[in-house]
Amino acid sequence: MAKVSVYNMEGKEVGSMELNDAVFGVEVNEHLVHMAVVQQLANNRQGTQKAKTRSEVRGGGRKPWRQKGTGHARQGSTRAPQWTGGGVVFAPTPRDYSFKMNRKEKRAALKSALTSRVQENKLIVVDELKFDEIKTKKFAEVLKNLNLDKALVVLNENDEKVVMSAKNIPTVKTTQINTINVYDVLKYNTVVLTKAAAESIEEVYA
Asked: Which of 37, 84, 112, 114 is least enclosed, having the fewest CB within 10 Å?
């Protein structure tokens, strides 16, 4: 089992913790990690691009001139693509870019991402994160004490004071164990787990 130090909010080492190899010591599957990231980015795409085809553009209800005898090329509508104000050929329409991954694949991808963070010494465990009031300055002090800049903070349960204190820091994101995802784990330089969150992750994903 991987052994990591446990720090307090002042940045001092107050103990150590052994991480379960079933979650934090698996063989890293880069393919599944890549697939999980692509899936999340694809699922976030709105896919709302739209342009009108000739059947959707307003107007053009009658032939602009008769079929024969005018010297012009025959035309059926002034809303054909070659006309100004006409429709778009092969116009884009709203589409759904999302795709699914199996539950086992998602779990394996998350375990791989967490393992890679442990191997790179980019995972920190703190004994607890508790604030008496909502104060961004205090959260910034904790980051400074732990020597962190861009961090994903994983909480065991929703703590409004912690979440709101971190909300205005652009390089920090807070999440809970039930909403943690591969993209965020890899996006931020360091993953910060509370001791309770680390234990809960082991219970859920082991």
From this structure: 84
